[in-house]
# Entry
Amino acid sequence: MPGRRATLTLLLALLLFTVLTGPSGSAAAHGAGRPVLPPALSRIPTHDRVVFLTIDDGWYRDPSAAALLRDRRVPVSLFPLPGAVDQDPGYFWQLTAGRRSAVGNHTVGHPDLTTLDPAGQRREICGARDRLAAAFGRAPVLLRPPFGRYDDTTRAAARACGVRALVTWTHDFTTWGDAPPPVPRLRRGDVVLLHFTPTLTADLGRALDAAREAGLVPAPLGAYVP
# Structure
Protein backbone atom coordinates (compact mmCIF):
# COMPACT_ATOMS: atom_id res chain seq x y z
CA MET A 1 0.00 0.00 0.00
CA PRO A 2 2.72 2.53 0.85
CA GLY A 3 4.33 1.79 -2.51
CA ARG A 4 1.03 2.28 -4.34
CA ARG A 5 0.42 5.59 -2.57
CA ALA A 6 3.90 6.77 -3.50
CA THR A 7 3.28 5.83 -7.13
CA LEU A 8 -0.05 7.70 -7.18
CA THR A 9 1.58 10.73 -5.60
CA LEU A 10 4.29 10.72 -8.26
CA LEU A 11 1.74 10.38 -11.07
CA LEU A 12 -0.31 13.28 -9.71
CA ALA A 13 2.81 15.42 -9.46
CA LEU A 14 3.74 14.60 -13.06
CA LEU A 15 0.21 15.41 -14.22
CA LEU A 16 0.25 18.77 -12.44
CA PHE A 17 3.64 19.56 -13.94
CA THR A 18 2.34 18.75 -17.44
CA VAL A 19 -0.70 21.00 -17.01
CA LEU A 20 1.39 23.91 -15.82
CA THR A 21 4.21 23.62 -18.34
CA GLY A 22 2.66 21.84 -21.30
CA PRO A 23 1.26 23.37 -24.50
CA SER A 24 -1.98 24.61 -22.95
CA GLY A 25 -0.18 26.12 -19.98
CA SER A 26 2.34 27.78 -22.28
CA ALA A 27 -0.44 29.21 -24.43
CA ALA A 28 -2.20 30.61 -21.40
CA ALA A 29 1.01 32.17 -20.16
CA HIS A 30 1.69 33.60 -23.61
CA GLY A 31 -1.83 35.03 -23.84
CA ALA A 32 -1.56 36.56 -20.40
CA GLY A 33 1.53 38.47 -21.52
CA ARG A 34 -0.10 40.01 -24.59
CA PRO A 35 -1.19 43.66 -24.30
CA VAL A 36 -4.92 44.24 -23.99
CA LEU A 37 -6.20 46.25 -26.95
CA PRO A 38 -8.72 49.06 -26.46
CA PRO A 39 -12.34 47.99 -27.02
CA ALA A 40 -14.33 49.23 -30.01
CA LEU A 41 -17.82 50.35 -29.04
CA SER A 42 -20.84 51.32 -31.12
CA ARG A 43 -23.10 51.41 -28.05
CA ILE A 44 -22.20 52.00 -24.42
CA PRO A 45 -23.42 49.34 -21.97
CA THR A 46 -25.33 51.14 -19.23
CA HIS A 47 -28.46 50.85 -17.12
CA ASP A 48 -28.82 54.64 -17.06
CA ARG A 49 -31.34 56.26 -19.37
CA VAL A 50 -28.73 58.16 -21.34
CA VAL A 51 -27.72 58.69 -24.94
CA PHE A 52 -24.43 60.00 -26.28
CA LEU A 53 -24.26 62.80 -28.85
CA THR A 54 -21.04 63.03 -30.85
CA ILE A 55 -19.99 65.56 -33.50
CA ASP A 56 -17.23 64.95 -36.06
CA ASP A 57 -14.82 66.90 -38.28
CA GLY A 58 -15.27 70.66 -37.74
CA TRP A 59 -14.79 72.29 -41.13
CA TYR A 60 -18.17 74.06 -41.00
CA ARG A 61 -18.70 75.96 -37.77
CA ASP A 62 -22.25 77.22 -37.27
CA PRO A 63 -22.68 79.74 -34.43
CA SER A 64 -26.33 78.72 -34.00
CA ALA A 65 -25.33 75.12 -33.27
CA ALA A 66 -22.84 76.32 -30.67
CA ALA A 67 -25.52 78.55 -29.14
CA LEU A 68 -27.98 75.66 -28.94
CA LEU A 69 -25.46 73.47 -27.14
CA ARG A 70 -24.42 76.27 -24.82
CA ASP A 71 -27.88 77.59 -23.99
CA ARG A 72 -29.38 74.15 -23.39
CA ARG A 73 -26.22 72.94 -21.64
CA VAL A 74 -26.06 69.79 -23.75
CA PRO A 75 -23.04 67.57 -23.09
CA VAL A 76 -21.53 66.33 -26.34
CA SER A 77 -18.37 64.54 -27.38
CA LEU A 78 -16.47 66.37 -30.10
CA PHE A 79 -14.19 64.60 -32.57
CA PRO A 80 -12.69 67.50 -34.51
CA LEU A 81 -9.82 67.34 -36.95
CA PRO A 82 -6.76 69.31 -35.79
CA GLY A 83 -6.74 71.40 -38.96
CA ALA A 84 -10.30 72.54 -38.31
CA VAL A 85 -9.40 73.48 -34.73
CA ASP A 86 -6.42 75.46 -35.99
CA GLN A 87 -8.71 77.52 -38.22
CA ASP A 88 -10.98 78.65 -35.37
CA PRO A 89 -9.87 77.43 -31.94
CA GLY A 90 -12.23 79.81 -30.15
CA TYR A 91 -15.26 78.08 -31.63
CA PHE A 92 -14.24 74.77 -30.10
CA TRP A 93 -13.06 76.30 -26.83
CA GLN A 94 -16.53 77.69 -26.20
CA LEU A 95 -18.01 74.24 -26.71
CA THR A 96 -15.71 72.72 -24.11
CA ALA A 97 -16.12 75.53 -21.56
CA GLY A 98 -17.28 74.24 -18.20
CA ARG A 99 -16.19 70.72 -19.20
CA ARG A 100 -19.69 69.79 -20.36
CA SER A 101 -18.15 68.59 -23.60
CA ALA A 102 -14.89 66.78 -24.24
CA VAL A 103 -12.66 66.42 -27.27
CA GLY A 104 -11.79 63.06 -28.80
CA ASN A 105 -9.32 61.92 -31.44
CA HIS A 106 -10.44 61.74 -35.08
CA THR A 107 -6.93 61.44 -36.63
CA VAL A 108 -4.97 64.14 -38.44
CA GLY A 109 -6.15 63.71 -42.01
CA HIS A 110 -9.32 61.57 -41.81
CA PRO A 111 -7.98 58.54 -43.73
CA ASP A 112 -9.38 55.05 -43.77
CA LEU A 113 -6.96 53.76 -41.16
CA THR A 114 -7.22 50.18 -42.39
CA THR A 115 -5.41 51.22 -45.58
CA LEU A 116 -2.32 52.34 -43.64
CA ASP A 117 0.56 50.34 -42.23
CA PRO A 118 1.16 50.34 -38.45
CA ALA A 119 3.52 53.32 -38.59
CA GLY A 120 1.06 55.29 -40.69
CA GLN A 121 -1.77 54.58 -38.28
CA ARG A 122 0.34 55.67 -35.32
CA ARG A 123 1.27 58.90 -37.10
CA GLU A 124 -2.38 59.71 -37.71
CA ILE A 125 -3.56 58.90 -34.19
CA CYS A 126 -0.59 60.12 -32.15
CA GLY A 127 -0.25 63.20 -34.36
CA ALA A 128 -3.85 64.19 -33.68
CA ARG A 129 -3.37 63.46 -29.99
CA ASP A 130 -0.41 65.82 -29.78
CA ARG A 131 -2.07 68.65 -31.67
CA LEU A 132 -5.33 68.42 -29.75
CA ALA A 133 -3.46 68.26 -26.45
CA ALA A 134 -1.65 71.46 -27.40
CA ALA A 135 -4.93 73.15 -28.32
CA PHE A 136 -7.05 72.03 -25.35
CA GLY A 137 -4.55 71.28 -22.61
CA ARG A 138 -5.28 67.57 -22.36
CA ALA A 139 -4.74 64.57 -24.59
CA PRO A 140 -7.86 62.82 -25.91
CA VAL A 141 -8.41 59.25 -24.74
CA LEU A 142 -11.25 58.23 -27.08
CA LEU A 143 -10.78 57.60 -30.80
CA ARG A 144 -13.41 57.92 -33.50
CA PRO A 145 -11.88 56.06 -36.47
CA PRO A 146 -12.81 57.83 -39.72
CA PHE A 147 -15.65 56.12 -41.59
CA GLY A 148 -15.97 53.83 -38.57
CA ARG A 149 -13.28 51.60 -40.07
CA TYR A 150 -10.60 49.97 -37.95
CA ASP A 151 -8.71 46.72 -37.49
CA ASP A 152 -6.50 45.22 -34.81
CA THR A 153 -3.59 47.28 -36.12
CA THR A 154 -5.70 50.37 -35.45
CA ARG A 155 -6.45 49.21 -31.94
CA ALA A 156 -2.76 48.52 -31.27
CA ALA A 157 -1.78 51.94 -32.65
CA ALA A 158 -4.51 53.56 -30.57
CA ARG A 159 -3.21 51.86 -27.44
CA ALA A 160 0.29 53.15 -28.18
CA CYS A 161 -1.16 56.66 -28.46
CA GLY A 162 -2.93 56.53 -25.10
CA VAL A 163 -6.44 55.72 -26.35
CA ARG A 164 -8.78 53.95 -23.90
CA ALA A 165 -11.48 52.99 -26.41
CA LEU A 166 -12.55 53.33 -30.02
CA VAL A 167 -16.08 54.71 -30.36
CA THR A 168 -18.06 54.38 -33.58
CA TRP A 169 -21.82 54.96 -33.55
CA THR A 170 -25.26 53.40 -33.39
CA HIS A 171 -27.20 55.92 -35.50
CA ASP A 172 -26.14 58.67 -37.92
CA PHE A 173 -28.43 61.71 -37.64
CA THR A 174 -26.45 63.75 -40.19
CA THR A 175 -28.40 65.13 -43.14
CA TRP A 176 -26.25 64.14 -46.09
CA GLY A 177 -28.69 64.86 -48.91
CA ASP A 178 -31.76 66.95 -49.53
CA ALA A 179 -33.74 65.32 -46.74
CA PRO A 180 -32.75 64.18 -43.24
CA PRO A 181 -32.52 60.46 -42.56
CA PRO A 182 -35.40 58.64 -40.84
CA VAL A 183 -35.39 59.11 -37.09
CA PRO A 184 -34.77 55.82 -35.28
CA ARG A 185 -36.10 54.86 -31.89
CA LEU A 186 -33.22 55.55 -29.53
CA ARG A 187 -32.29 53.17 -26.74
CA ARG A 188 -30.18 53.68 -23.65
CA GLY A 189 -26.48 53.62 -24.45
CA ASP A 190 -26.91 54.57 -28.12
CA VAL A 191 -24.18 56.68 -29.71
CA VAL A 192 -25.52 59.33 -32.08
CA LEU A 193 -23.28 60.55 -34.89
CA LEU A 194 -23.51 64.16 -36.07
CA HIS A 195 -21.19 66.34 -38.13
CA PHE A 196 -20.21 69.99 -38.21
CA THR A 197 -22.22 70.70 -41.37
CA PRO A 198 -24.68 73.45 -42.36
CA THR A 199 -27.52 71.25 -41.07
CA LEU A 200 -26.00 70.61 -37.63
CA THR A 201 -28.48 72.78 -35.73
CA ALA A 202 -31.46 70.99 -37.27
CA ASP A 203 -29.79 67.59 -36.89
CA LEU A 204 -29.11 68.31 -33.22
CA GLY A 205 -32.72 69.31 -32.74
CA ARG A 206 -33.95 66.02 -34.22
CA ALA A 207 -31.53 64.04 -32.05
CA LEU A 208 -32.58 65.87 -28.89
CA ASP A 209 -36.26 65.39 -29.74
CA ALA A 210 -35.68 61.67 -30.34
CA ALA A 211 -33.88 61.37 -27.02
CA ARG A 212 -36.68 63.15 -25.19
CA GLU A 213 -39.35 60.96 -26.81
CA ALA A 214 -37.43 57.88 -25.67
CA GLY A 215 -37.07 59.21 -22.13
CA LEU A 216 -33.31 59.61 -22.48
CA VAL A 217 -30.95 62.45 -21.64
CA PRO A 218 -27.58 63.26 -23.25
CA ALA A 219 -24.51 62.30 -21.26
CA PRO A 220 -20.75 62.69 -21.79
CA LEU A 221 -19.01 59.65 -23.21
CA GLY A 222 -16.03 60.06 -20.92
CA ALA A 223 -18.16 59.40 -17.85
CA TYR A 224 -19.29 56.01 -19.16
CA VAL A 225 -16.37 54.60 -21.13
CA PRO A 226 -13.91 52.90 -18.77
User: Anything to note?
Assistant: Residues 69 and 141 are 22 Å apart (CA to CA). Confidence is low (pLDDT under 50) at residues 1-31.
